[in-house]
Amino acid sequence: MAFLPVDEQLELISRGTEEVIPLNDLRKKLEKSISDNKPLTVKLGCDPSRPDLHIGHGVVLQKLRDFQDLGHQAVLVIGDFTAMIGDPSERNKTRPQLTLEEAKVNAESYIEQSKVLLDVNNLKVIFNSTWLNKMNFEDVIKLSSKYTVARMIERDDFTKRFESETPISMHEFLYPLAQAMDSVEINADVELGGTDQKFNLLVGRDIQREYGQDPQSIITLPLLEGTDGVEKMSKSYDNYIALDDSPEDMYGKIMSINDSMILKYYKLAIFADREKIKEVKLLLKDDANNPRDIKRSLAKELVKKYYSEEKADLAQNSFDQIFVKRDNPENMQSRKIDSDVGLLELLTEEGLVASKGEGKRLLSQNAVKINGEVCNDINLIVSPSNEELVIKVGKRRFLKVTS
Questions:
Q1: By 3-state DSSP, what share of the chain in percent is helix, strand and coil, each rounded to 5?
Q2: For residue 236, what pLDDT is reported?
Q3: C-alpha 93: how far from its chain's center?
Q4: What predicted TM-score, i.e. pTM, was given to this entire model?
Q5: 366 — phi, psi (to 5°)?
Q6: Hey, what domains does the chain have and what are their CATH numbers?
């Protein structure tokens, strides 16, 4: 295929990145790729310790898609074997280990969700248990001999744990070495990762060199803060926007972010080009502009990215109906009942809450309304009647109950 000129490729590749290490090496790889008419092998290692993806994960997935759009070979390495070790990155204690079976189940969900961003027709998906499971103890000893404890302890999270006398298990030293073997196995030209993965990616370069390979170039991407604007996006902090959130929830969550996060979300959640970033900066600097209106454009762009322009328009209309006009949405979920049903059971069955436990918590927090009135009765029974009921959970979940 005909590749774009190097400078044009680098413009797209560098968009939204934190570091390209080393940039000159990547330029040479791209030049050779063009002269040989051969795509680069671009690796993204995926940790399947959790099965749910959010737009924070989307930052690095989008960068992998950029390489696909430039004609290069994307390789998704599912770390089902390394999940049994547990990535120590940014951990102040030993991470829980998964079984191979648990990792594989999570990986299936990871792959399915990532399809919303990646071109599956130009994607290789491989599991690192394929080669790491075959290594015997002699192989592990030989691999371990290629890296020193002194170099390993330079890692920031290990240093902090060592100084605070927090235990570091020996198996945690093996994680970056195992991840490096992934790069050796596929002879990666480029590896992508968040800034928290920089140490692991650098180890990959060193180990490739030990095995006589040309060291991979490294591209790190910033970690995206969640909707709270403080902690990195994570389900643990309940500040995430899931890749499979409904268009309405995705739009509404963007509208809840702090104004100070608008530009960063344009850079990392949308991967806007330089002209768009420049435009947004100017809009934000002008006090005559309401940040809310800029955020509306951002929210619409995000929904369009993951769904469609039509769904983005509908999500915006729904948001305006609920939060601007203070009306119930026109096309809300409905349930017809012909016998008594517990409110908690109803909310759980219809997916307005993930569990009865969550339902009890929201009821106790006055986050549930029936026909506009707060309800906190966990034992409430909903009975068939001629009156139509509208149950609202939180800010954006509605259920119409009819008989």
A1: 50, 15, 35
A2: 77
A3: 23
A4: 0.78
A5: 60, 35
A6: 6-221 (3.40.50.620), 245-324 (1.10.240.10), 333-402 (3.10.290.10)
DSSP state of 166: -
- CA dist 81 and 86 (Å) reads 9
pLDDT at 326: 65
Strand, helix or coil for residue 3: coil
Which residues make Cβ contacts (< 8 Å) with residue 232, sequence separation at least 6?
56, 223, 224, 225, 226
Flag residues of the chain having pLDDT under 50: 91-94
**Other beta carbons less than 10 A from residue 149's beta carbon:** 10
CA distance 186 to 179: 11
The pLDDT value given to residue 57: 92
CA distance 252 to 264: 17
Q: In whole angstroms, what is the distance from residue 369 CA to residue 221 CA?
A: 41
Residue 360 contacts residue 344 (beta carbons within 8 Å): yes
Tens digits of per-residue pLDDT, 119-150? 989 999 999 999 999 999 999 999 999 998 88
> Helix H segments across 74-155?
100-114, 129-132, 137-144, 149-153
DSSP assignment, residue 94?
Answer: P
Secondary structure element (H or E) that encloses residue 364, with its range = helix 356-364
Please report where in the chains the tokens 């902690």 appear, as a residue: 231
Q: How far apart are CA 286 and CA 21, in angstroms?
A: 36
Residue 325 pLDDT: 64
Please measure the distance between the N-terminal and C-terminal CA atoms of the chain and give it in whole angstroms. 62
Tokens of 214: 């040309």
CA–CA gap between residue 85 and residue 94 (Å, rounded): 10
pLDDT of residue 386: 67
